[in-house]
Each structure stands twice: as C-alpha cells, then as structure tokens.
C-alpha cells in the first residue's frame, strides 16, 4: 500500500522536477498496462469459442466517444510549442495530452469496481488470480490518478480539464456462465486498450520533458 501511494506523495513535493514526476507516472502506467495484458491472456485461456463471434466491438467501449490519438506515433504528431521563458509555454499542447490521460483514468473508476465485484464469482479456473490482479489495477490506477491530479495543477487550466465519460452498463455482467465470461472479457479488453493509450501518452510527455529538462519547482 505504501508503494501505491508513492506517486501521489512524490507529486505533492514541489522540489521534484517534472522529468522525475513523469518518469514515475510512466512506470506506474506501464505496470497498469502490463497487468491488463496479463489478465486478458488468462481469460483467453478459458474463453468460450462463441465469445469470439458475439463479443461487442471496441467501438462499444464506453470511452470510445473520447477523441484520442490511437497510439504513441499519433500522439507524437501533436503540435509542440518551443520552450520559452516559462515552463507553462512548453506544455501548452502537452497539457491537452495530460487532460486526455486524466479523462481516461477518471472514466475507469466505476468500471474497475464492476470488474472487481464480478471477479468474485467469475466462472474461471484462475478466478482467484484474476480477482487479485483486478485489485492491483485499481490501486495502481488510483495512485496514478492522484499523482496526475497534482501534476496537472502545475500545468495550467488545459491540463485540469476532464471529459466525463459515464459508465452506463450497470453492475450486472450477466446471469449465465457464457455471458459473464464474454462481458467480463469485453470490459477488460476495453481497459487494456485505454491503458495502452495512457501508457503511450505519458511516455510521449516524459520524452518531451526530458529533452528540455524543465523544472516545476
């Protein structure tokens, strides 16, 4: 638990340079995406064949309405403002990218609770392992979100803007075994896709900050 709080505590310290803050955030997001990838593989090992056919399309993920770059390559194309005399000028466009990251994290607070609750009764041989990893994802997601909240406050109004994407599917992922596995798998696949975006965007921000060595202190 102490480790999961480290990003928030570090971000709260005004003496820490932005490169270090973004490096820690990138490490946290990398762990988050790795967990979601591992979980998806565990579910694939016991996924009903019919699930490949009737699983909802990615466009049905509740975050699909948020316009974001699809990957790191597209994120790198966001226009970059050359460094001026003040740090905020450097992050004029990067603040928008951080806003997207924070919006995605915010959008997954409730769905991660649904995954955690549903994992308790998931009809899967690795149910216990899946439940534990979902718990880890919740902790890492909260820690990352708390740290980025502090970071965004140092980057101006654009970084503090959040697009709210409510999760409207409710807590019930299905009554029968196949429905539970398919809906759980779909929700997790949506999170895996978004965690990949979060990780990619933060790595872009970290690389840009490292080039200029700006300080927030």
TrEMBL record:
Its main location: secreted. Transmembrane segments: none annotated. Pfam families: Hormone_1. Keywords: Disulfide bond, Hormone, Secreted, Signal. InterPro entries: 4_helix_cytokine-like_core, Somatotropin/Prolactin, Somatotropin_CS. GO terms for cellular component: extracellular space. It is found in: Secreted. It comes from the Eukaryota. GO terms for biological process: positive regulation of cell population proliferation; positive regulation of receptor signaling pathway via JAK-STAT; response to nutrient levels. Coiled coil: none annotated. The keyword Disulfide bond applies. GO terms for molecular function: hormone activity. PANTHER family: PROLACTIN, SOMATOTROPIN,PROLACTIN. Belongs to the somatotropin/prolactin family. This is Prolactin. It comes from Seriola lalandi dorsalis.
């Amino acid at each position: 638990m102490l480790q999961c709080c480290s990003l928030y505590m570090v971000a709260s310290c005004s003496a820490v340079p932005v490169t270090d803050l973004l490096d820690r955030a990138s490490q946290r997001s990398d762990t988050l995406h790795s967990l979601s990838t591992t979980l998806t593989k565990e579910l694939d090992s016991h996924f009903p064949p019919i699930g490949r056919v009737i699983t909802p399309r990615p466009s049905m993920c509740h975050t699909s309405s948020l316009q974001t770059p699809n990957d790191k390559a597209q994120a790198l194309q966001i226009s970059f403002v050359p460094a001026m005399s003040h740090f905020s000028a450097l992050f004029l466009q990067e603040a928008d990218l951080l806003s997207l990251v924070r919006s995605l994290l915010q959008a997954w607070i409730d769905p991660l609770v649904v995954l955690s609750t549903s994992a308790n009764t998931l009809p899967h041989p690795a149910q216990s392992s899946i439940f534990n990893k979902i718990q880890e994802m919740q902790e890492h997601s909260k820690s990352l979100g708390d740290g980025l909240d502090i970071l965004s406050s140092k980057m101006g109004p654009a970084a503090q803007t959040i697009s709210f994407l409510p999760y409207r599917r409710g807590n019930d992922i299905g009554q029968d075994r196949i429905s539970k596995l398919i809906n759980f798998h779909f929700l997790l696949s949506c999170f895996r896709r978004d965690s990949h975006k979060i990780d990619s965007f933060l790595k872009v921000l970290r690389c840009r900050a490292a080039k200029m060595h700006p300080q927030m202190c």
